[in-house]
Fold these 4 entries.
Entry 1:
Amino acid sequence: MGFDFGRLCIGRGTLGLSEVLGENTMSGIPVLGALGGYESDEQKALIKKQEQMAAEMKKRAQQNEQARMNALGQKMLAFNPQNQLMAQMFGPDAAFTPQQFADMAANPLANPAAASQAHQQSLASGKPMTPEQQQEWQRVQEDKRRRAMVQQNMQAPWPGPAPLQQRTPQAARRF
């Protein structure tokens, strides 16, 4: 059984090394706050590299989100022939309208109201939008573009089959 250097016994309680020395909440790396706050060049380089990697991961996540949403739009367009067949066989009420397809291809993360408000405020004040606001604005613009593309490329449901005609009743017969 070895001694755990990560835990330090003080009186009756046990404190972790990060509680004793202080912890930098931005990077999760213990910083020697109680002992002078010295960070070595290696720690600074590590923090910088972690921030760079986090920015790259965030950018990649946005690219993946955009690719997923574009793939969803393509799937909606691929469903068009099946939708037309449903309208032909069962009537136009059994098929989706182009507006319904556009709603299905919408990005649930896009917030047009907040993006529009931020854009209007930046135009009125002359200050540039923050990177988060710019990303939201771009997400909303991409969503509008995708919805318009799906709605324009979907055909409206055909009228469907003619209703069945009632036969004229025959005269009563005696057996």
Entry 2:
Amino acid sequence: MPKTSMSYIDEYFSKSPDEMYFDDAIVLDKRKFFEYFCDNLKDNQIILNNFCSYEPFKPRTIKIIIFILNIFLYFVINALFINDDYISEVYNLEEEEDNIFSFIPRSINRFFYTTLVGIIIEFIVDFFFVEEKKMKGIFLREKDNRIILKSQIVKLVELIKKKYISFIIFVFLIYIICLYYLICFYSIYPKIQKEWIKSSIFIFIIRQILSILQCLL
């Protein structure tokens, strides 16, 4: 039987199992383990969240911009924590000592620094977006007063526009700074380029694997 418009509205404003109290979720959440795991991945794993998860207040274009920003930052933050001792060690490596995985032991400490800074940046980026539950709260509070409801929604739309504009400006500035820094780093340390690119990709992959394990836990 097809859903009516009212049933769609009721479903939209109902609490999701993840928002319920534990005792309620135990009874009402009928998802199997694999379904719950997949839902978690879509919400918290950045690649899957970008391409498989729909969020009305965060369009896919914005998600792709954030994804590219994340990749930029992995390379920049990784380069920031490459110190003189590390560069000296790489420059003095014998050819036979350098292989495809030899960079991993030298990159462990930068993995922790890059992860920490990445989490802080993600936290800052979240400030530029209005949560969907804010709109739901307005509808639920003011559903009996259409004038106030309309006024609150107009204010929310204006807030979303301002936050989007602020986000675009913020990202543009970060892109410019990152690009300038990467060009400088690339030209000053030509022998470190290969090591830097490999370690940056390694750190990005490890972060994705850890986010999957976090969802599993």
Entry 3:
Amino acid sequence: MERITWKCQCFVCKRPIQGGRPCVVFSTNKAGLVGICHSGCSYGLHRFGYYWLQMCPPYRLNEEQLSFLKHFYPKLHRLPGGQQPNRELRFALAYLDRDYPASLVNPLATLRRFIDEHKRYAREWKYQNDLEMDFLRSLAEIQKAAKTEPAGLEVDFRP
């Protein structure tokens, strides 16, 4: 298994990453890990079909976590958002990203926190189906895809 660590080349500026909080860059068009970049270099990547996850302590993502994220971001970006109907499924899945990987320990608790926060800010509810069922179905699809197409690498930026 390949291991990405310090002194790997930045995807954007092509310089080695030697400190800070590096970002793991994923494609939003198809399932794939694109590379690693400096946190400062990640600005604006979303305009080009990429999404990044900034590494936080302990600065490590194992193969299973990377495989999940590799399939998570394309699924997330295919769902309706903004002011479109059924946008809440995308918002609920994006809420998982706030505290990843801890949010996957109990995804239903994360979903309930999202619903509470969504209602607290008096946002209009546009979801017409069963959000909990669709949320769990989406997670199951992502998990299945992650098992069939693993990332084959890990990211370890521990000091």
Entry 4:
Amino acid sequence: MFKVEIKKPIWNGELRKRCVGIAEFRLQPVMQVDIMYTRKDGTRTFPNPFKVTKAQMLKCPTMVVGGNVKLYVIPVEDMEEIER
């Protein structure tokens, strides 16, 4: 399973949900997404990784960011949490 680390989620995305953006060039059949964002007290907001498939990502809305990079905007609640 391909692993990707996200520094911080998209808090107020167009879906009005907590989301992550994954660049189109990083898409793999199955991915493990680690959201590394921490609160002021040092604890991670999302301590467990998530699993998402390419098929799920292709159904999500997209946005283009600097350098003309296409991101798939995936709501955190739509990904499967992997218990550690």
